[in-house]
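[job 0412] stage=fold_complex status=start
inputs:
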Amino acid sequence: MNGDRLAISDWERLLATLELVRHSLPRGVTPIILSSLADAGPSPQWGSGFSFVHGPAGRNIALAVGLRAALPHVPLILAMNADSVTLGTNHLIHAARRNVGMTLLLLRSELTRSDASSGQDRTAWDLRGPQVSLEVPARPLEWASALDAALVGRACLDEPAELGALLLRALRKPGFSVLGVTTDRSLATGVLSECDWPEYFDRYREWARPLRENARTRDAPPAPPATARNVPRYEVRIAGVGGHGVKLAGTVLSEAAGFHEGLWATQRGDYGSATRGGPSSVDVVIGSERITYPCADDPDALVVLSQAAADRHAGTLKPGARLVADPAEVTRMPPNAIAVPIAAIAHEHTGKPIAAGVVALGCIAALTDAVRPDSLQRSLAANLPRASLDSNMAACAAGFAATRAALEGVRHG
Amino acid sequence: MSNVSFMHGNEAAAEGAIAAGCRFYAGYPITPSTEIAEILSTRLPEVGGVFVQMEDEIASMAAIIGASLGGVKSATATSGPGFSLMQENLGFAVASEIPCVIINVQRVGPSTGLPTKAAQGDVMQARWGTHGDHPIIVLTPSTVQESFALTVRAFNLAERFRTPVVVLMDAIVAQLKEKVILPERVEMECRTLPQGSAASYKPFAFGEGSVAPLAPFGGEYRYHVTGLLHDEHGFPTEDPEVVARWWQHMNTKLAAHLDEILDWEEEALDDADVAIVAYGGTARAAAHAVSLARSRGVRAGLFKPRTLWPFPEEAVRALSRRVRRIVVAEMNMGQVRLEVERLAAGRVPVEGVHRADGLGIRPEQIVAAVMAPLGRAA
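[job 0412] stage=fold_complex status=done
writing structure:
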């Protein structure tokens, strides 16, 4: 069927070269061959000088990335043909651009024949049939060169010494290399392009070294106090839109209870796919018993920062629950809502809308003694950058004071 | 000594992986699992491991198989769309018996679905997602503490049985922050090295309920790994006798050790008339429902599987003999309910509480099913 496939397959001829190369490598080094070629399947007939992965077509390149990470010094040789320019193309591109250490042998000359010098005319289709004509051949060697592969070359399958020498050179070159293996003697052979840059995982380990050294000096967090108080299940929901900082508020509140007070607490955010502007809410459940259900379906305290949040959540309060709403945002105030100008307070103290959540924490601290203000402050300090801590503390305190004042107003009014 | 921390399920899974000895992670970030990748991208280099963001989930799965073959414990994390892409190479890991851990944080599917919303729709995909019959282990956590513990366990089971293990989390647990107590050390299954000579090494020895030690690639033990059905040396074969022995090996390697693999929790079942079967994030609503139902005079209890596959069949069969009704609550349209129905075999009515609209199941929904008059459903 194929002119250059006579009595023995490409694979068997290649194997002779691989054996040659193996004997040129240092003792104890066992190259790993990866291939999905049908006739390259592991077989007891051939030498035991290699380890062999007969992986899924094209995927061997990605598999080799993991092998290289685990085994920095073992030669990885991938024997591929059509799978390099079909299933494996994406993997080839990324292994090449990262310079992950492996050597691809691209078998079947028709895949490597085409190069820029051939002057192929993309407009003059061969009309013998769509399979051979309607596309120009893939050019994996040129792709690899364009991606600055460490070494790109070509050798003849019928010249084992030449192919072996080129393969050895590719294996010794740090990084990603591709060799076209052809039976077409008219094509240029030898090194076609070379690029000197570090192998990916070598560079990764170098980059990681300071991280390792710093990690050793990291302090363990202080142990939280054992809980002494009896706090019945208390559900809090803060609801607004993305950009209000409700998730951070939930973290601060739940850690204040769960970490700084020694209670049990959960925090669950509910948000959409958009980072800003979509509905965003957080549920915090606090208690001295372990929290099973982490949602505040019927909150004891609800803070709404937008009209949409008020419409969606204000209807599910349990009897005796408290609702705080920002009258500047919520124009249709729910009955019994405590009006606190949360956005204005956030703006006054921090200049940023994202502090609304922190103001809401102050509101909640004014409504319940499940979490004490000093725990809230410690949790704020642990969760906010130092530069913005003072302004956020002030915003939180202002939310607390405004809520207390509004409650007093309700009481005396 | 242990550390009290406050973290979400994704962070606990990442810490569990580190504690269990994972030193290679390849992944492609996807909501709602992204924090696992984010955390491991800094934690792994701190402990001498490697983190790689791959081009896609197909490559991620391939890379963790490669690293594991190289002797390094490896994991990836994803959500439904990525888990679908991983099925091809997951099958390769099953067939070639390469240990690895896949954390799938479920979101609503099919396809892109509801990216940020919780679901439990991948239960059957985790069991049968890759083609062909195959053994698999799937664990599912319902608390942040369990997210840590079951991730550790996943690595241990993967090594012990030379199999991929799926940690099937859901966005409720993954995104939930709560208190965890991280032990200073965890029990760790280390890879055993072959005892005999390299020449006599059978990397895929057919055991009745046992697996051969997996020698790391690149050393003196040279062998062949293939996704084709193979003999004990890893050479492909179509010999029906050898293939039959391969199947016997694969079918017994987990089945002979169910007592080691199966894990579930029972709560208030001793005197229960109604058992709620729930797992993952839904088990938390179910636990709340148990106390609500009891406060209203119905003796309910909770059966919470932590191992989903192999399914705890005998335990559920026994459960169907102890109670008068079973309610299965899950964020899908009935994937575990069908298993429970099969095992209850008509002894008691099995009723499902299902939703897959992105909203978690509420305790009151479960209570309503628990309180419904007995004998109505059949």
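[job 0412] summary: The two ends of chain B are 52 Å apart (CA to CA).
[job 0412] exit 0
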